[in-house]
Amino acid sequence: MSWAASPAAAAGGAALGDDPSGRRRPPASASAAALRRLSSASGLASGLGALVIWVALLGPVIALLTHLSAGEIGSAITGPGNLDPLVTSLAAGGVTLAVLLVFCTPLAYMLARGTLPFPRIWEAGVLCSLLLPPLVIGLLLVFFVGPFTPIGELLNATPWHLSATNTFLALVIAEVYESAPYYVVGAQAAFADVEPRIEEQAALLGDRPRRVFRRVTLPLAAPGLGVALSVAWARAMGAFGAVIIIAYHPYGLPLQIYNTLQETGLASALPYALILLVVALPLPLAAFTWSARARRRRRG
Question: What domains are there in the chain, each with its CATH number?
Fold first, then answer.
């Protein structure tokens, strides 16, 4: 038996920290310390990279805040008629959310549960409307609900002689088309997170489907629905591409920003941009906070 093959020699080699190739390995404690240092350095680099990206994403908001003064904001708010577009945007946004809740929530639920025939075709239709550029949506709406289309003529034939161009109704239609796909996708994900087994157990206890939906499904999906609805709210408040085509009047905050920019310059439009952010962002931030807390409670 050779020395290299003897058990004692092998044990001695292991004690000396040699691998089978004859190269000496560093002690285990040194390797662990090196890995910890590498992990710490990698974590630090990742954190710094995330901070850079976060600041870059917030850069436009930071620039907006640094280029505004209290006097400019006050003059923008106190001017005669300057807050009329804000009222218009709030009213149109509220009606838009009501339309989404009533008509799009059932669609999102059926997509999540797969109860519709050919579900991939339904989902593809929602994604196509989501991916359409807003300006294209406005152009297509002219040929869909304009005054010389069958829908436009039907609206004009009503006792109220409604029109889907340059009216409050047109503004709501444009906001619905720009925000509805975002709500449907988010609401579908919220309903999909609810375990069907829980609904089945409630049904086994004697609850009817409507009661199961109201007492079980909706409460569990509520945080996700809140996030989806808040994103749709922000999208509706900032709707511009479709609005400028079919609903130039009465104009809301986005068109007020655009008109002010065209008439008096960039500095005069900044206060209205801040007002739009103040109106559009708090609801999504609150909804995301609520959803995160609900997920933590569910996991706990």
Answer: 7-65 (no CATH), 83-299 (1.10.3720.10)
